[in-house]
Design brief:
Number of strands: 7
Shape: elongated
CATH architecture of the largest domain: 3-Layer(aba) Sandwich
Distance between the termini: 68 Å
CATH class of the largest domain: Alpha Beta
Strand order of the largest sheet: 2-1-3-4-5
Strand content: 15-25%
Length: 204
């Protein structure tokens, strides 16, 4: 005599833009529950109607706040009592009331991805810094206008070497930016709520 263990139920808040294949693959080990709500009121009604009953985990996409709003006390009160995990696809947790989740009995565990976009953010930051110093925008505009010979000559750019870069906030992105700016021989100073250890500030 054999018994079949039911798959755990999981859902997601907000539309999935880049990981639909990965989400679909979860169907091998979990029952995927899809919400059809297009706003917070409809989502709350779905919860009250029991559509998400039995769900143990939810994946919260970046765009979910536009659909369901913040995961606050009001939303937590209608989410199924079976919910144990919220996987937030963001570096911070400002869209989720973590304290309210922790106060649930049993508590809801909240995860985030604090370092996922550090490199990408800093790469764009360095691109903008170098672009401003080297007048990339003016050069690209001249190129599109057929003035690539430099007549009239574009304004001179500036070398990043030896320049001072100020960073407000030395979290993961700030420290990553410091490392990449120093590769261009820039001097880095920073302001942070708390002074970093000598090891973390590494000379800034």
């Amino acid at each position: 005599m054999s018994s079949t263990v039911p798959k755990p139920k999981v859902t997601h808040l907000g539309s999935i833009d880049h990981a639909q294949t990965a989400w679909n693959a979860l169907g091998k080990i979990a029952e995927l529950v899809e919400s059809s709500a297009i706003n917070r009121a409809e989502f709350i009604q779905e919860c009250k109607d029991g559509k998400l009953d039995g769900v143990v985990a939810t994946y919260q996409t970046i765009g979910s706040v536009a659909l369901t709003g913040l995961v606050d006390e009001e939303l937590l009160n209608v989410l199924p009592s079976s919910l144990r995990y919220i996987a937030h696809c963001g570096a911070g947790s400002d869209q989720v009331d973590v304290h309210a989740c922790s106060a649930r009995n049993p508590p809801i565990r909240v995860s985030n991805v604090p370092t996922a976009v550090d490199d990408a953010t800093v790469d764009v930051n360095m691109f903008l810094i170098l672009g401003a110093m080297r007048n990339f925008s003016a050069g690209m505009t001249a190129l599109r206008e057929g003035k690539w010979r430099g007549n009239p000559a574009p304004p001179l750019g500036h070398d990043p070497e030896g320049k001072v870069l100020g960073i407000l906030g030395m979290g993961g992105i700030g420290r990553n930016l410091k490392k990449k700016a120093e590769a261009f021989e820039m001097k880095v100073i920073y302001h942070n709520r708390r002074k970093l250890s000598d090891e973390m500030s590494a000379g800034a």
